[in-house]
Amino acid sequence: MKPALRRWLQQVEADRMHKMRRKAAEFNRNTTTYDHRVWKTGLPVRSAVLKPHAGELVVGWVTTSESSLLYVFLFFPILLRS
Hints:
mainly alpha, 71% helix, 0% strand, rod-shaped, 2 domains, single chain
């Protein structure tokens, strides 16, 4: 591949990634809900920009919403022994 073509392809890829990051930043700034149906960023599902953010949201949701379920699993065996 010619060096000029390689530089051009690298610039195109860099521009594309910059646009994706800017869209993700706008999403974070303008959105108050994290439901996947409002993620209208145009980014692919497996985007390296949104994947870490989505992972943090899932972990936060699981740890806060299922903490009461954890109490059930921890204390239910104790109640059965009594």
